[in-house]
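Appendix C reproduces, verbatim, an entry submitted by the partner laboratory led by Prof. M.T., so that reviewers can inspect both the input and the predicted structure.
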Amino acid sequence: MRWIWIDKFLEFRSGKFARAIKNLTLAEEHLHDHYPGYPVMPASLIIEGLAQTGGILVGEAGGFVEKVVLAKIPRAEFFGVACAGDQLVYEVTLTDLRAEGAVVEAKAFLEGELLADVEIFFAHLDNSRANQIFGPKNFVFTQQLLGVLDLAKAQSRAKEAEALAVSSTSPAPVNGQSHEAPPS
């Protein structure tokens, strides 16, 4: 079974930026085992959530043509802990995209405060070579995680359509003046 460490994308700008959330609940087994009696999200799983967010961003920027694998984490700083009942917000910015791989700057926030600041390097592998080395199941692009991305894109399209509908029904100013009644 593949674990998914993203519950929902809040924002997704193709090839640039992604914001996702992860809700921590006591229903997750790892919270019971990491520090018994003090349900803390392991730092490695926070990094995995950031890597999944970044991997989808990198893969989508390349049209999901190649496999994206986590290659290196040159820097990871943590400034606190996340516990059951908390909601993490992952923000990932694509800073460098090349044929051989990509670099993302990834941050995790807890209640608006910076919890983790991580730099992640990804490598691109062509599908045939990647399947020979790793097999098809070890990558971020699972149907479940791509479904989370599809939902985010559908929500974004709905918001854009709603904004367009609202702007098209608003009266246009005449000669630069608004149609609103003057204040009484």
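The chain has one domain: 8-166. Additional entries are available on request from the coordinating office.
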